[in-house]
Amino acid sequence: MLAGIYYGAQYGGSTTAILVNIPGEATSVVTTLDGHQMAKQGRAGVALGVASIGSFINKSPAEVFMAAAFGMVGYFLVKFGFEPAPLLLGFVLGKLMEEKLRQALVISRGSFMVFVNRPLSAGMLALSLVLMVFAILPAIRSGREEVFREAE
Question: Which residue of 7, 55, 88, 120 shows the fewest CB atoms closer than 10 Å?
Answer without folding.
Answer: 120
